[in-house]
Amino acid sequence: MEYFAELFLGGLTRGSIYALIALGYTMVYGIIGLINFAHGEIYMIGAFTALIVASVLTLQGWNHIAILVIASIVAVIYSSAYGYTAEKLAYKPLRRAPRLSALISAIGLSLFLQNYVLLAQTSDFLPFPSLIPEFKFNEPYEHIISSSEIVILTATTIVMVVLTFLIKFTKIGKAMRATAQDRNMAMLLGVDVDKVISITFIIGSATAALGGVLIASHIGQINFYIGFIAGIKAFVAAVLGGIGSIPGAVLGSLVLGWTESFFTGYVSSDYEDVFAFLFLVFILIFRPAGLLGRSETEKV
Amino acid sequence: MKPFQEIKKSFLVSAWFMFLTFPIMVIRVNTVENMVEWRWKNMLLIGVGSFFLSFVWRYLIKRRDVGKKKIGIGKTQKTPLIQRIIKERRILVPTLILVSVFALVFPFIFSLYQTNIMITGLIYVMLGLGLNIVVGLAGLLDLGYVAFYAVGAYVYALLNHHFGLGFWAVLPIGAGVGAFFGILLGFPVLRLRGDYLAIVTLGFGEIIRLILENWNEFSFGPSGIANISRPSFFGIDFSVHNATIYIYYIMIGLVLFTIFVVNRLQDSRIGRAWIALREDEVACQAMGIDKRATKLTAFALGATWAGMAGVIFAAKTTFINPACFTIWESIIILCIVVLGGMGSIIGVIVGSLVLILLPEYLRAFSEYRMLIFGSVLVLMMVFRPGGIISDVRRTYHFEGLEKQ
Question: What's the whole-model pTM score?
C-alpha cells in the first residue's frame, strides 16, 4: 500500500509538472490553432535563467528561500519575455499562412533557441542548487513524499486556481475565450486580438517557467536539451486531454503522470515512454478528440 | 515614416534584446570553481546587431506586405521564374543534359568524401519525395516518418546479420516491410485529423526507436549493428572506394526511379484523390472517393520509399544504431518537403540538396550551423512560405477574359 501511495504521489507530481507546461500548449492551440513547438524551449530557458540567478546569488551567500523566490520570479519574467518575443517574430507574421508553415517556423525557433543556449552556456549537465528546504513536519513521511514534491503540488494547485479564476472571471479571460471561439467575431466585437494572443503566450510561458524551476530543483540538474523531451511529453498530455481545453490539459497531464509512474513502478522502466505513447494511441482510437475535447462536426 | 521614429524604434528593439539575452549571453557560472564570468562584450554585440537587423526586418516585412496587397487587388500573379524555366523546352533540355552529365561524372571529379555526402543528399531526396506523398499530396502531417526509415535499415541489418542476405535481395523486402508498417500506422489513425495525427505519428516514431533501443535480444540495443555488408555487383565485392561509387550510382538510379513513379502517381487517379483529400476531406468523400483506401495507400507508398532509403542507408554506413533515427530526422525530412515546396518534385529535390549539403559545407562554422539552420527555417516561413520552388496548381487560363 505504501508503495502504491509513493507511486501515486510520484505520478501526481510528474503530472502536475506536465500540466504546467501543457497549459501553454493548450492555451496557444486553443487561440491560434498552432502547435507551439518551441514551448519546451521556453521552459528550458526558464530553468536556465533560474539556475544562473540562483548560482550567482548562492555565491553571494543569500538565504535559500529568498533565492528560490527571486530565481522563480526572474525565470518567470524572462520566459514570458521570450514567449512574447517569439510570438512577435516567428508566429505573428504567419497569422494568415497555412498551418504547416507556422509549425515549421515553430520547429525552426525551437532549434534556434536550443542552440542559442548551447552556444552561450554549455552542453553539459549543470547541477541545479537544491533550493527547496526539507520540512520538519514531513520527516516521518519522507519515504512516501519528499518536501520538494509537496512544494510542487502546492505551487501547481495555486497556479491552477489562479488561472481558472483569470479565465473564468476577468475581462481578459473573457476576451481569450471569445478569441478562441471565433477570432474574427471577437475582432468585430472590439477585442484586441493581437493583445490577447500576446497575453496568452505570456501566461503560457510563465507557467512553463515555473514548472521549469520546480522540476529543476526537484531533479537537481539541467541541460539545454531538457525542453525538447518535456515539451513532447506535455504535448502528448495536452492532446490526451483534448487540445485546446484547459481542464483537459490538466487531466491529460495527471493521467499521463500516473500512467508513467505506475508502469515504471510495477512493470518496467525501459518501456515507460513506449507505454505512454501506446496509451495515447489507444485513447485516441476511442476518443479521437482526446478525453475532454469535444469533437466538432464539420460544417460544409 | 520619419527616419527619427525609425531610429527610435530600432533603439527600443535593441534595448529589448539586450535585456532579453542578458542572463544567458552575459553571465556564465562555473559551478566547479564557483566563479561567475561576466561577458559584457556579448551584450554590446547583441545591442549593435539587433539595432541594424531591426531595420532590415521591418523593411522586408513591409515589402512582403506590399507584395501581398498587390495580389489581393487582383493583379495577375507572375509565374515564378523557375517554373517558367521548367516550361521552356529550350532551356529545360540543355539543363537536364548538363545536370545528368554532372551527376554521372560526379564521383570521378570529386573526392570520396564528397561522394559520400552526395549519397546522403540523395538518400534524403528519396525520403523527401516519399514524405511528399504523405504530407505534400495527401496533406497528412506525419512527424514519425523516420520510423519507416529505421524499419528499412534494421530489416537489412538483421537479415544480413542472421541470414547473410545481400543488398539486392533485401531492397524489395525492406520496401515491403516499410509499406506494411505504413499500413500498420495508417489503420489506427484513419479517424484522426490534423494535429492529433501529428502527435500519434510522432509517438509511433518514438515507439519504434525505443523498442529498438531496449529490446537487446532482437536489435542489439543502443550499441547497434556493425559490419553490415555493402552491396555487391553480381556476387563481386568491391573495395570501400569502389563500393561507395557503386552505391552512388545505385542511388542515382533509385532517385530517378522515384521521380518517375511519383510523377506518374501525381497525375494518376489515386494522386488526384490524394490532392482532393488534402484540399477538403468532406467534399472529397462526397465525390465518392474512398477515404480509407486513399489514406492507407498514401501511408503505405510513403513508407515504401522510406524503407528502401533505410536499406541503402544501412548498406552505406555499414553500421546503424537507434540514435540514427531520432525524431530530429523526421523533422529534417519534413523541413525538406516544406522548404522545398510542398507537392513539387523539383522543389523537394532542391530542398533536400540544400538542407543536407549546406550544413555539410558549413562545417567551417560547425558550431553555429544548427543555429543558422533554425533561423533559416523561421525566415523562410516568414518571407517565402511556399518554399523554394512552390508547386503550381493546374489552372485553366481564360485568354479571352483578360483582354477585355
Answer: 0.84
